[in-house]
Amino acid sequence: MGSPKTSSLANKCVGLISKWGSAKVRSLRFIHLLAVLLTFVPLAAADGRGRVSIDSSRTQEHRAWAESAECMANEWYPRLGNLLSSSPRVELPDVVIELSPDYDGVAAASGRRITLSSKWVRDHPEDARGVVVHELVHVVQAYPENREGWVTEGIADFIRYGLFEAWPLERFPRPAKPHPYTDGYQTAGGFLLWLEGDASPGIVRRLNTALRGDAYGPGTFREITGRSADDLWAAYVAAVDAPQQLPAETTRFRYGANGGGLFERKDAGAWAEMNQGGEIWRFKEVARTTTYIELLDESRGLRLRLTASEVQLSRREGWSTLYAAGWDPKPRRQVTGP
Known about the structure:
Blueprint: H1 4-26, H2 31-38, E1 52-55, H3 63-84, E2 95-100, E3 107-110, E4 113-117, H4 118-123, H5 125-141, H6 149-164, H7 185-199, H8 203-212, H9 220-225, H10 229-241, E5 252-255, E6 261-265, E7 270-275, E8 278-288, E9 293-297, E10 302-306, E11 310-315, E12 318-327
Parallel strand pairs: 1-2, 2-4
Antiparallel strand pairs: 3-4, 5-6, 5-12, 6-7, 7-8, 8-9, 9-10, 10-11, 11-12
């Protein structure tokens, strides 16, 4: 049975995180990553260990944000430990996140303490939640100094953008230059997301184990995967840049953003965008290929594309990602009678 402190945390947070969390899980691209999430421990870690508190005493105007973000952090913190640990028992320290009006950067982790700019929270409240996850990864990593920086930051952004924010692979930057993955952050995060879901499941945990010890070196990627990092990057770019084919069933296209909704095909080439059970916009299908369906809302002059994994919006500079989405599978035919 949990302690009174653990129960109090769970009761306070359950209403704040359950709806948000379920929408994110629906957007994950890879089945095995979903399985990893389903094995994560629940809301709070074991009694007396691994809790996150957010100190907003110097920025009272951000108290509501801090309470919500603290709930999210305590849901995800033990998950980070489970994902990265090679040990069956995950020992996590308590962490304090200070909202600082004096900090000029965005955020930084040092030991068991994270400093987060209150100005960033004010101007970018949703992004700041992702920043918290990124910095909590660094607390869990706890690497000795002078470890491979691009892998360190790549793992943090793999978890932040690949799992927490559920970005599709197409959204991660893939710069055309030598050894681009060494840029770290989002570039390396997308690379690791592809490796984890395709070429080398389990690589993130193995890289973390190597970095925590003294086993990481120039040949680590080849030792884990049998291929060099450069070869794997080329395969990653080729796989992501190849257009994904639409599935056979293209009737309902669900997304988790803005509380969740779906695009539903109607009669005579019409589509409806549905939210909370009701129709909010009507579109006309104007083009269809093997990789996308193009929709037009003439009343707003709005063009959208429904691809295999995302909704795209037509802008002056071209098509850009609006949000991640996924097609409902074809319903099974029910058999009746003897």
